[in-house]
Amino acid sequence: MRPKLLVIFLNHFAVANDLLSKRSRIYSDRPRSSTVMFGKLVGMTTLIMWCGSEDPVFPKFRRMFAEVFGKGNLDEHSSIVEDEREKFLDRLSSSPGDFYDHIEILSESIILRIAYGYQLSGKDDKFYDLYRKFSRVLTNEVVAQRWIVDYFPILQFLPRWLPGLRFHKFAEEQGRIRDDFNNMPYDFVKQEIKDHRAAPSFVSNWLLKSEQTEADDTVTRYVAAAMYLGGADTTAGFLKAFFYLMAMHPEVQAKAQAEIDAVVGVDHSPDITHWKDLPFLHALMKEVHRWQCIVPLGIPHRLTEDDEYEGIHISGGTTVIANIWAMCYDEDQYPEPSKFNPERFIPDPMTGKVQQDPNDYVFGFGRRICPGMHFANRTLFLMVSAILSSFTISKCLDDAGGEIEPKFECFGQITRHLRPFNVRIIRRK
Ligand code: HEM
């Protein structure tokens, strides 16, 4: 009998592309939630990212996302992104030492406005706190399998008053946070509509467009929560890495600044019309995506029927993980992969060749590919170009004028972030 594969990791782009993209029809499901605790008791399966590929909600959710974040619809968000960018640059000017917090506020503010028309007031805002609480629930889920009920599912039916049973209480707390995350911003919009003062947003547009059935209402609620969840953390992770890398590589920073100054001038920030004119900036962004790899293992896919690949049998039901991290650090594609070197993506003057574009895989694969990818790259382009145009980031100095290395320490389960670190941020003009 052939051994049954339960989980496979795809470490090479070519294989991931063959299976997850070219055979996307059968490789686009998500694993059923792995644990009793998080799947059944906390109810994390309501997250739209975990929705099965054969669930009728799946195409609907992808369509709703495409209407907001599809390549052709991004201009609609320009005023929000540019407005939040200005606020961010002001905050950075007045308290550069708090850049790490400013990044988180920026990323959350943009997505909250697009999804819910909600203006985040800062770190004291209830939604700022809610996001952090919900991230902790997710983290707990990823390090699950530590609850006895996951090993003996029958225990879930024991009465909750039995002494020593803590899991019911834990599940209830986590479930409440999940509900708040799905409901609080959504209910805010409903109230704003009732009060005739709702700002245009994904949710208000849907609610005002037509009479919603209860099922529509639920889908809209979960899709909006997926925007919030998927959109805030990822762009923040990228920008944190960008600040670190600029402090570590002044020569790269100076080259990008020189390109921006030459193309845009020194009096104003680049806008989206400069997209095609800044090749080095694009190379720099690709290298940040590759070097830091924000979502190292993507989100697991699930194969829905038996398959055969290069003589290997893969059973339906197998969990398939794209090891994006391994692709970013593949020595065959990227000589000296640990080196931060945007020149990889500038055509070689002799051969015209460039190394593989990480955008081919850092946003995932096939039918599950990140639906926010174009929006993310466009937002990041606007942020990175404006930061470089207005500021110089460098290492902090000690009392004797010596440079202090910024701390490099990462955390996170699904997304990978740098822990807070210090850099020096000085206005250029
Ligand atoms: C640097 C920015 C980002 C990176 C690196 C990133 C990466 C990813 C990856 C690797 C996946 C898994 C794809 C797969 O299963 O094959 C994913 C899924 C997803 N992302 Fe992103 N993402 C980013 C930004 C965003 C933004 C801005 C949004 C929302 C506006 C978003 C929303 C989502 C959603 C909803 C999914 C789940 C898709 C599904 O299950 O079908 N992401 N992302």
From TrEMBL:
GO terms for molecular function: heme binding; iron ion binding; monooxygenase activity; oxidoreductase activity, acting on paired donors, with incorporation or reduction of molecular oxygen. Pathway: Secondary metabolite biosynthesis. Keywords: Heme, Iron, Metal-binding, Monooxygenase, Oxidoreductase. It comes from the Eukaryota. SUPFAM superfamilies: Cytochrome P450. Its cofactor is heme. Pfam families: p450. The keyword rRNA-binding does not apply. Heme binds at residue 370. Belongs to the cytochrome P450 family. PANTHER family: P450, PUTATIVE (EUROFUNG)-RELATED, P450, PUTATIVE (EUROFUNG)-RELATED-RELATED. This is Cytochrome P450. It comes from Sistotremastrum niveocremeum HHB9708.
